[in-house]
Amino acid sequence: MPKYIIMKNITFFCLLLISTLSFAQLSNDDINKLIQNGSEQQLLVESSRLMQEDMFYQAEMVVDKLLTIKPESSNYNYRKGFLLLELKKDYSDAILYFNKAILKIDVNYDAYGASEKSAPPDAYFHLATCYHLDENIENAKIFYNKFIATSRSGSELVQVSKLRLIQCENAIQAMANKVDVQLKNVGNKINNEFPNYSPVISLDGSALYFTSKKPWENGESENSRDPFKYQYPEDVYVSYLSKDSIWMEPKRLDFCLPHRNEATCAVSTDERKLYLYQDSTGNGDIYYTDFYASKFSEIKKLPSSKINTEYWESHCMVSHDRSRMFFTSNRPGGMGGTDIYMSLRNADSSWSTPVNLGPRVNTIHDEDAPFVSVDNGMLYFSSNGEKSIGGFDIMVCDLLENGTWSESRNLGYPFNSTNDDIYYTTTLDGLRGYMTSWRENGFGEKDIYEVKNNFLGVKSIAVFKGTIKTLDNSPLPEDFAVNIKLTCDDCEEADKNRVIFPRLRDGMFMTGLKPCKTYTIAYYNASDNLVMYEETFTTECNLDYQEISRELILDVPNRAIIIPKDTIKDIIPIDVVSYKNLEFMFYFDYNKNKLYTDKGKLKDFVKEVEAQLKEGRPSITINVYSSASHVPTKTYSSNEKLATIRAENMKYDIATYFESKPEFVGKVNVVIVSAIVDGPEYVNDSAKQKKYKPYQFIGLKTE
Description:
This protein is an alpha+beta fold. Helices cover 21% and strands 28% of the residues.
């Protein structure tokens, strides 16, 4: 099972059961013979069978022949549109076929009858999906609703359509309040006509590991194409950034086999361990490979029955301090679909019993591709649930002081599109990342994109980084490895000791430190534990982001570390201006939901935001929190609806205010974090306003 398959495919005809029929798998030559010699009825039956079994590549071959027989058939146009969507995500061309298909819809559609000229109501759903992917939201809503009204109530796509309608409303809001990001396709050295995805960027941004389904140069993988989409197996590649910031020709890693799927998950900070997904054992598990003798070794299954189970573990990420593993699984007991779990590293380096990250992160839908920032403070992942604007969207949540995660929030548009956006990883500072997406004018089915932003930077962290080179500039000897022991004199026990391993390809090393702490750094020869150099320093207390840099020279024969005095760069403050985060809170009277940006304390809050933007703050995110009490509302359908209206009104008014001023357009992102019903249960005592008013509020916080 390749890594990217997250959900079951949306089936061709959901209600059709063919348990009495049994078919043998046919080769492409067999299919071509059938196309040349088969009757229309035979072609129709075979295309239905192939589509039912997800054999989409061969099904398209047959359907293309059927369309030459009856080019205007709603039935055959429906099939072609469906296959374009499933095989290539070619929603633009699929729209043309589905618009022909919906000219004749029959709820009693017969998928195996040669006389069937109609399409099933599912054509409305798939046409809606195409418009949704094309960001034509109003048309998407029309056809999702048409499908719901026309289809049988038992169709599994009805609930999917209702979810999609929620996502459409999210998309309308997100597109009206764009976030400030720079999106760039990484280009044709990495992307091509084949799927390229799951990028993993090194912390310094110099290496990009990724998965590709392109063929092997010598044709070795030709006979290993999957029978469903006729795609090549997954392989892992790495590309390095040249001195002029151009991605170099990717290199396929040595452990890849032409007949086996191997896909990227994560890389350690020192790039000596690569975590992978591999599916040869059944549903799919987490694997790893170590860098040794100038190459990555043969892959091994992660030896933890707590992580890898009989169920599907599709992705993982180990935090940069190696203390936590985040991974995705569909094991029983979760919230639903695939969930994200976290496991802690024990003293003996084994992994603890995983904990589901709970409803602030996971939903009844699918969550995948976790990635944690270098300071462990932000968790990125993708979700296709009710916060998405379509498909998988990248979400983020923050680590709270009590060790739990905040409510996740969508990173906005155009960071996310109405298509799948997934596998987001970032460089050290959090301001540059890479993800997988389908975008207009891409090279293939999936492409890798670079995303630059000015609002997700890592704060309140010090970074220790440097390079170790030999006297003669030869590569670091693997049998004389220099390791770095880092001891924090005044940290909590869990953060006291750490070992850093320089990257073998260029001697680079880095790790995150805590501000206002004293550290002892010992450089030692790992083969005999000989300390070659030791130093102590204290990180600054009042900087948002700081770097401590070292450039070291290794004298191999004398087992010594040399630090040229002119290369010591202690506590380099990065030019980050710190702005005070603003807060606003207002408590409503019963059933009230509206405030005005030109009146009262909300006016003062808006003016303070304006002042920071005029002072040079590049952008501001305003988080909206709303609540309604349990006192029954007579005006709205529910208290949940009242809370939502309060939040939406506030978001709309603030966004409209700033978008109406040219100097602030695109600089203010308004995000609804929560809209809840809270407080004591109602006991027919609505006169007790002091009891319920604290739970009838709108709150704003900037970040």
